[in-house]
Amino acid sequence: xxxxxxxxxxxxxxxxxxxxxxxxxxxxxxxxxxxxxxxxxxxxxxxxxxxxxxxxxxxxxxxxxxxxxxxxxxxxxxxxxxxxxxxxxxxxxxxxxxxxxxxxxxxxxxxxxxxxxxxxxxxxxxxxxxxxxxxxxxxxxxxxxxxxxxxxxxxxxxxxxxxxxxxxxxxxxxxxxxxxxxxxxxxxxxxxxxxxxxxxxxxxxxxxxxxxxxxxxxxx
Length: 220
Known about the structure:
Glutaredoxin; Thioredoxin-like_sf; membrane; SCO1/SenC; transmembrane; transmembrane helix
């Protein structure tokens, strides 16, 4: 290998090493800045900040509310509809059970049910549904535009199969979202997550949140 080739090889190696060092530093710095790093199990393309956002909806009592009114403590959000024959009741019951398990451990978490069925889900119907699931569960509905906006904020999907059928089913995503006041989205849970697994995970996040915000989380 001649002198020029050697220099080129050394330069290329140095660039690779520097690149790996920058990547390692960026990853380490990111983890250091993330108060929830030790709790996270899911990966969100673009980062957790890409999910969630402000919303204005109508609660189960017919009152217009914003995300600031609803998310006053750690909360678990779920998008569904009351006419759903199986998935929504099962997922909502799972979330309610996880909240009850957390209550027994001394954690206060609010389950939230956001309807994607603005045509049929009146505040009265949602209240009946949420009261049955858990006394703390908050039900939300809204106009088609409001529901579409909050759905897009949380990257959820829903589609009415037949708008002209009063008994139509709605295809929709089934993830549940853990969110915090001010900091917003923290984690999502799939359908196969058990109440115990959810409770364990949420407890980890709440502990980390309290440690990072001892004054703001004092009431929780």
